[in-house]
Design a protein that fits this description.
Elements lengths: L8 E5 L1 E5 L17 E8 L3 H12 L2 H6 L10 H4 L5 E5 L2 E7 L7 E7 L10 E6 L9 E8 L5 H8 L21 H20 L16 H8 L9 H12 L2
Parallel strand pairs: 2-8
Antiparallel strand pairs: 1-7, 3-6, 3-8, 4-5, 4-7
């Protein structure tokens, strides 16, 4: 959904921290964003727990981020009684989620989105605060952390070839929603097709080679991904490539 202009809202930038896919060797868990995710953190500026978490993220101390204690859920009704200014998260001009808020008494909270690893600029992210809803009980600050999945060269080429004006499609719906995005379907389908093609190609003669020893050729990668600035392969082209691999 595109961002609508309104005089009762304030648009703010948000600090973005990029976590490397391998998190510099830190093991997964806790509050460390998993590979293939974007996590929005909103915290109470007066809470020491939030100050420590934010400092660890900005310093790239991934172990400290991971080991930060997860806050308890607020008391029933707390979100309605006293909270921060309600806000929306925006990516490249599109609203990704609406009306989030931090309840009073909670140092920080998070929301996780799937992320393909495609090109999104730090400046694409923004916070829209709804300033027409009364004085807030909590003064909040925001931080966004993103961590790309481990991508093959082919996957990276395919993602880089997407329409640069549609960068928001690289983020999915917030978890735990399991609705697949179009990008999920595209990347999953291409991945399965490529794997099937390689598997069938090397299973000729009644035996199968070790799949780890097989790779797509340079010409095949170019055929799927397309030339720089040009269109990627169509579905018909991919099917033609698969039939070529399947032929004996």
């Amino acid at each position: 959904m595109m961002l609508a202009s309104t005089t009762a809202a304030a648009v703010k930038s948000v600090q973005v921290v990029t976590v490397p896919p391998d998190a510099a060797g830190a093991t997964d868990g806790g509050l460390l964003p998993p590979a293939g995710s974007v996590v929005i953190y909103v915290g109470d500026v007066s809470a020491p727990e939030w100050q420590r978490l934010r400092a660890a993220a900005l310093d790239g101390d991934w172990n400290a981020v991971r080991d930060t204690a997860i806050p308890q859920h607020p008391e029933p009704g707390a979100e309605l009684v006293a909270a921060s200014i309600p806000f929306d998260l925006v990516c490249a001009g599109h609203v990704m989620v609406r009306d989030l808020a931090l309840p009073q008494g909670v140092p920080f909270r998070t929301l996780t989105f799937p992320y393909t690893g495609g090109p999104i600029r730090d400046t694409d992210f923004g916070i829209v605060e709804h300033t027409d809803r009364g004085a807030p009980a909590v003064r909040a600050t925001y931080l966004l952390m993103r961590r790309a999945p481990h991508l093959t060269r082919l996957e990276r080429q395919l993602l880089d070839g997407m329409d640069p004006e549609a960068r928001h499609v690289h983020m999915g719906r917030p978890q735990p929603c399991q609705t697949l995005t179009a990008m999920d379907a595209l990347t999953d389908g291409i991945g399965r097709a490529a794997q099937d093609a390689v598997r069938e190609k090397h299973a000729r003669g009644g035996y199968a080679r070790d799949e780890s020893a097989t790779t797509l050729s340079e010409s095949e990668i170019t055929e799927i991904a397309g030339d720089p600035g040009g269109p990627a392969a169509s579905v018909a082209d991919l099917l033609t490539m698969r039939r070529r691999h399947f032929s004996y």
